[in-house]
C-alpha cells in the first residue's frame, strides 16, 4: 500500500476533522506518499513504514500523522494493505523499516507507554467465544491494569457508550455481528486511550448499525485521534 495525494479535509464540527487517505496497491501508482512534519500535538506519528511478505510488498513507505479530534479513513480495495498498515501502527507486526510514535512514545523503545494510549479493533472483532460480554470486558480491563472503582467506572462508561446493556450476560459466540463489533469497540475504549485504530468497524453491519457505529466514532473523536479503514469504495 502507498498513500496518494494530500489528505482531504471536511469540517463536521469546529473541533473535529475528517480526512480520507486513499490507499492503493503499489502496482497501481508511482505517486509519492504524503509526507508532513508532525506538529506538537500529534497523537500518531508514523514514518516510512514498509512491510514485505515474501514477494508481496504490502506497505511501501507510509507516512501518517494524526492529531487530536481527527478521524482518518483508509480507503482502498481488498488487499491494498490497510490491515497491514494498522498492524504496524499497533505493534501487532514489526515493520521492515520505519517507526511509529504514539503520544510521543516510540512503539519499539517504549511499547508499554505507547500501547497504553492505544485502543485497537482488529479486523473481524475477535473475542473469546465462550465468555459472556461482561466476563470478556472484565478480563480485558484486568489486562489493562484497571481495578476497583476505576474498573467499574470505565465498564459502566463504555457499556453505556456502545449500548451493550442488553447483552452483558450473553456469550460472545451467540451475539449478532453488530453486537460483536460493538463489543470489539468497547474493549478498545476500556482504558480511555487517545488513539483508536478501527479495522473495518462497519464491515458486515446493516445500514442502521453502520450509521450507529459512524455516529459513535464521531462522538468519540472529539478528544481522540481515530484511524479507521474500509474497502467499501462508494
Ligand atoms: N501474514 C501475511 N502473509 C502473507 N501475505 C500477507 C499477510 N498479511 C497480508 N498479506 C498480503 O499483503 C497484502 C495486503 O493485505 P492487507 O490484509 O493489509 O490488505 P487490506 O487492504 O486490509 O485488505 P482487506 O480490505 O481485504 O482487508 C495482500 O496481498 C495480502 O495477501
TrEMBL record:
One of its GO terms (molecular function) is ATP binding. It holds the Pfam family ABC_tran. Keywords: ATP-binding, Nucleotide-binding, Transport. Signal peptide: none annotated. The keyword Nucleotide-binding applies. It comes from the Bacteria. InterPro entries: AAA+_ATPase (IPR003593), ABC_transporter-like_ATP-bd (IPR003439), P-loop_NTPase (IPR027417). Residues 44-232 form the ABC transporter domain. SMART domains: AAA. SUPFAM superfamilies: P-loop containing nucleoside triphosphate hydrolases (SSF52540). Belongs to the ABC transporter superfamily. PANTHER family: ABC TRANSPORTER RELATED (PTHR43335:SF11), ABC TRANSPORTER, ATP-BINDING PROTEIN (PTHR43335). This is Putative ABC transporter ATP-binding protein YbhF. It comes from Engelhardtia mirabilis.
